[in-house]
Amino acid sequence: MKNRLPILFLLAAPSCISFGQAPGPPEAEAFQFHTPEEWRGEIIQLPPGFASDLGWNGVESIKFAPGMFQADSDSFFSYVLVFLLAKDADVSEKGVQAEVLKYYRGLATAVMGGKGIEVDTEKFALKLEPIEITKPPRDVPADAGDGEVKIWNATLDWTEPFATQKKQTLNFEIHLWKNDGRPVLYFTVSPQERDHEIWKEMRGYRAKFKVGG
What we know:
- The protein is of the alpha+beta class.
- It has three helices and seven strands; from the N terminus they run H-E-E-E-H-E-E-E-E-H.
- It has one domain (7-208).
- 19% of the residues lie in helices and 28% in strands.
């Protein structure tokens, strides 16, 4: 696999960003998303070039909806994202909040900077709300099995950098569990309200997700 820009950026801003991104490791090739072919994606190493201050090491794999970059689409900026992290990663609630905010601040700065637009990322805000796990657990990734799972609902107030360069609120459902001792963070993301059809679709993919064969 050659060094290349993440497909996210190639599709949205092919002429203005250069991150020198390294490809993801072979282990990530085995991520099983069960998304349709039109849900294109990419695998990159963490920390990514656009957020070099990220305190997590590992691999990221993303699958995004066909309308990801179409502001008038019902699936605009809707995607599923997985981080497979090093065993020593800080995945406490405080750690998750801090690192995810770094990621999106870096993303917005890089993309909008490539367009010659300044953005005040200090105004970005991420709020996490812990969700109580039912017994037996429901709506969790298959990869989690019977292990411990933490769930947060989250909202990110930020500036969408690709299509509109306008303020946007992103809704998240974040699942955390461990695979062979390594933290796995699964993000289900959309600006749509959580009762929208796109959420039903993405939750279906999440329920089937596995790391490895």
